[in-house]
Amino acid sequence: MSSLPPPEPVHRPVLLEQVLAGLNPTPGMILVDGTAGAGGHTAALARLVQPGGRVIGLDRDPEMLRMATEATRGLPVELVHAPYSDLADVLEERGIEAVDGVLLDLGLSSDQLAWEHRGFSFGREGPLDMRFDPEGETTAADLVNSLSADELADIFFHLGEERFSRRVARRIVESRKFEGPITTTSRLATLVRSSIPGKWGPIDPATRVFQALRIAVNRELEHLDHTLSHLPEWLRPGGRAAIISFHSLEDRRVKHAFRNDPRWNVLTKKPVTASPDEVGQNPRARSAKLRVAERCPTTQ
Ligand SMILES: C[S@@+](CC[C@H](N)C(=O)[O-])C[C@H]1O[C@@H](n2cnc3c(N)ncnc32)[C@H](O)[C@@H]1O
């Protein structure tokens, strides 16, 4: 990690009141924030488990953990550089059998999006990277320059719901063949836009392709699926899980896991969404959906 002081976070925690109501933190509890990010939710939870409790905050991104360190200074928080899917190991290393609550606020933080050197944003010139963990093996450039047109099209279609996935993929393969490897966000964004026929609507077509690549680079759905199948084992009976998702691929998984696994008692019949006020102050909250479930006391 670099020794520069962390910048001021631009990220605002979404659905904060609703997360607190859902997890219902009380003094003495041990909670996990699996996606600590800039530490907004972590700090709010940590204030409420005092005295006697603590929050374990995980993130794959060391730059985000530096921000979370600032935001949680003086609070009972332990920050760990690990994916949330490794929670079993993180708890075992600390001699913790089960916790009282787990929060996952999925996806990308506004800070990561704003840092051009991380390559998440099609609106900022940067290297085509997109790894949450800069030590991760595969970058977006690796995928874009090595996969076949069919493999790329499948990623754009399945993870970005891009209607013109085959056209975009063909254009990419053609460009890298004749003009050399694609290594910057701006070149990829230009290629995507030039492959989409007709006029685009209010959403830049690069949005869907960038989302798809980010999900593929970080294997986001694999981490989520693994975690959803083990989460009940990591919670004490009566413990709660609160999960915020930002697109249908994630929300569908959370909804089905909560509904179909008899170890859960679902507390949110419909997903909780942000008020117009919150969306006005934080446009990112527009697509947030929160689901909360309680670990049933009676099932194993
Ligand atoms: C939406 S942000 C969380 C924001 C945070 N709740 C706050 O209030 O600042 C999502 C964070 O999750 C991290 N992340 C994404 N996938 C992860 C995973 N599988 N394990 C741990 N952290 C992950 C990202 O690096 C990012 O910092």
Hetero groups: S-adenosylmethionine
Relative helix content: 40-55%
Please give the radius of gyration in angstroms.
Answer: 20 Å
Quick one: biggest sheet?
7 strands, mixed
Uncertain segments are none
Q: What class, by secondary structure content?
A: alpha/beta
CATH architectural type of the largest domain = 3-Layer(aba) Sandwich
CATH fold annotation of the largest domain = Rossmann fold
Helical stretch tally? 13
Order of helices and strands: HEHEHEHEHHHHHHHEHEHE
Structural write-up:
- There is one protein chain.
- The chain is an alpha/beta fold.
- 43% of the residues lie in helices and 14% in strands.
- It has 13 helices and 7 strands.
- A 7-stranded mixed beta sheet has the order 3-2-1-4-5-7-6, with helices on both faces.
- β1, α2 (40-48) and β2 form a beta-alpha-beta unit.
- The protein is globular, with a radius of gyration of 20 Å.
- It binds S-adenosylmethionine.
Supply the key terms:
single chain, 300 residues, alpha/beta, Rossmann fold, DNA polymerase, domain 1, 2 domains, seven-stranded mixed β-sheet, 13 helices, globular, binds S-adenosylmethionine
Secondary structure: elements and pairs:
Layout: H1 16-23, E1 30-33, H2 40-48, E2 54-59, H3 62-71, E3 77-81, H4 87-93, E4 99-105, H5 110-114, H6 140-146, H7 149-160, H8 165-179, H9 185-195, H10 206-217, H11 220-234, E5 235-245, H12 248-260, E6 264-266, H13 276-281, E7 289-295
Parallel strand pairs: 1-2, 1-4, 2-3, 4-5
Antiparallel strand pairs: 5-7, 6-7
Helix pairs in contact: 7-8, 7-10, 8-9, 11-12
Bound molecules: S-adenosylmethionine.
S-adenosylmethionine binds at residues 11, 13, 34-35, 37-41, 58-61, 64, 83-85, 105, 107, 109, 132, 223.
